[in-house]
Specification:
The chain is an alpha/beta fold. It has three domains: 73 residues; 164 residues, P-loop containing nucleotide triphosphate hydrolases (Rossmann fold, 3-Layer(aba) Sandwich), CATH 3.40.50; 139 residues, Helicase, Ruva Protein, domain 3 (Orthogonal Bundle). It has 19 helices and eleven strands. Strands 2-5-8-1-9 form a five-stranded parallel beta sheet. It has a two-stranded antiparallel sheet with strand order 3-4. Bound molecules: adenosine-5'-triphosphate (ATP).
Length: 442
């Protein structure tokens, strides 16, 4: 005989049990009072004992339910706290916390687990993208959601922030990953070639059209079309692109019949496209068609936690036995504003690798503008540092970030490197809003 299993939600069971107790208590008190009145007895003493009994049973049931629910959670917390990847505190500190603030402890471990899982997810699905910072992981979790759909994505971000890398990541995690990926850099197309580049042409359509040629739209059919630097597309071409986006059809230059296509579009720009719309240099209707799922990539200045991880990544990419980065060089890399973002960093690391003949990259191996970055902080574009205190704070913040990275994200290690107590370090981490978890290696 097959056994049937019924799964009832705890949200139903627990209210039913406690509701049942409340009803039972009311019915029994009513009956008791009725009985006492019929027999001319004082209901005070029996009511007191009834309350004690029902209270005791409810208390025991609550304990049992809590034990059943919390036992696996506590086991999970205990086991995960043993993992090196999660524990950034000494065991004694963990014990102290456990007895005083259990909810806080649970929340902290759950947050750490989620953090590590997102890092693992990022590395699994985007192996070429280094994204340890919270900001970038947030972007990638958005990208993960949109990748397997056919939704049009508009990637915004300064030059060198990795827009092309993200577009490739979307394609590789999409349902069209076995179909063509056609990329077109809109800055690279001369004005007179736009039409034949996109739509292709028939033989004899114009002088020099000696044979029929398919355009990018035709090549991208059933696949993905990445329009890089879309802000540089001429207005005339924008109108034609809009038709393909809306109706999925076009004609070859010199052609008479329409060709239907099924394309997933990804566009990217480093320009302020809303301002372009306001100025009339970008079509508003096309902007709305493209802006279905905008993804904004933060500049490297906004995710300083990624700088040294990216540096290590590029060092490992260049040579089999990569050099280390000296503390002073790390400090300079952290202090630079990186207007050219990841691309500029990549070039600086490549140059340093060539220049460096020792086992550690020193300040002198870095480009001139990076070497000057600590002094340049007086005119740092984002923060407009005015006073010496602000400059010192920025340097202190950078030193903490560097120590956290070296200490693998463990505050105890970082505090030792900095020669301060973990308590002081925790205070400063809070002050500068640094996320120590993002320095942990999964
Ligand atoms: N998160 C990252 N991890 C690893 N490499 C990165 C990352 N972001 C960017 N890069 C590298 O930096 C370089 C520039 O990236 P990419 O071309 O994608 O930037 P972009 O935003 O498209 O630049 P542009 O606007 O100038 O076209 C590439 O070599 C890319 O591999």
């Amino acid at each position: 005989m097959t056994q049937k299993h019924y799964h009832i939600s705890l949200y139903i069971i627990i209210p039913v049990i406690f509701g049942g107790f409340a009803i039972l208590a009311s019915v029994m008190s009513f009956r008791l009072t009725e009985y006492c009145m019929e027999h001319h007895l004082d209901p005070g003493t029996p009511a007191f004992w009834l309350a004690i009994i029902i209270g005791g049973i409810t208390y025991a049931c609550t304990l049992l339910i809590l034990w059943i629910i919390l036992r696996p959670v506590e086991k999970f917390i205990e086991e995960t706290k043993q993992l090196r990847v999660l524990s950034d505190r000494k065991p004694e500190e963990n014990k102290k916390k456990k007895s005083t603030d259990k909810i806080k402890e649970f929340t902290q471990v759950f947050e750490q687990v989620t953090d590590v899982l997102t890092m693992v997810e990022v590395r699994k699905y985007f192996p070429d993208i280094i994204a340890d910072s919270k900001a970038m992981r947030g972007v990638l979790s958005q990208v993960m959601k949109v990748a397997p759909t056919d939704t049009t994505v508009l990637i915004l971000g300064e030059s060198g922030t990795g827009k092309e890398l993200i577009a490739t990541g979307i394609y590789e995690n999409s349902l069209r990953k076995d179909k063509p990926f056609i990329a077109l850099n809109c800055t690279a197309v001369p004005d007179e070639l736009w039409e034949s580049e996109l739509f292709g042409h028939e033989k004899g359509a114009f002088t020099g059209a000696i044979a029929k040629k398919p355009g990018k739209f035709e090549l991208a059919n059933k696949g993905t079309f990445f329009l890089d630097e879309i802000g540089d597309m001429p207005l005339k071409t924008q109108a034609k692109l809009l038709r393909v986006l809306q109706e999925g059809e076009f004609e070859r230059v010199g052609g008479l019949h329409s060709i239907k296509v099924d394309i997933r579009f990804i566009a990217a720009t480093n320009k302020d496209i809303t301002q372009m719309v306001e100025e009339g240099t970008f079509r508003e209707d096309l902007y709305h068609r493209l802006n279905v799922f905008p993804v904004r990539l933060p500049s490297l200045r906004e995710r300083k936690e990624d700088i040294l991880v990216l540096t290590d990544h590029f060092l490992q990419k260049n040579v089999p036995e990569p050099a280390k980065v000296s503390p002073v060089a790390s400090q300079l890399l952290m202090a630079h504003a990186w207007p050219g973002n990841v691309r500029e960093l990549q070039n600086a690391v490549e140059r340093a690798t060539v220049m460096c003949e020792e086992d550690a990259i020193q300040a002198e191996h870095l480009p001139e503008n990076v070497k000057k970055s600590l002094t340049n902080q007086t005119i740092a574009p984002l923060k407009e540092l005015l006073s010496i205190d602000e400059k010192l704070e920025e340097i202190e913040k950078n030193l903490i970030i560097e120590a956290l990275r070296k200490g693998g994200g463990f505050q105890v290690n970082a505090a030792k490197l900095l020669g301060i107590s973990p308590r002081k370090l925790a205070h400063r981490i809070g002050k500068y809003n640094i996320d120590p978890k993002s320095f942990k290696k999964s």
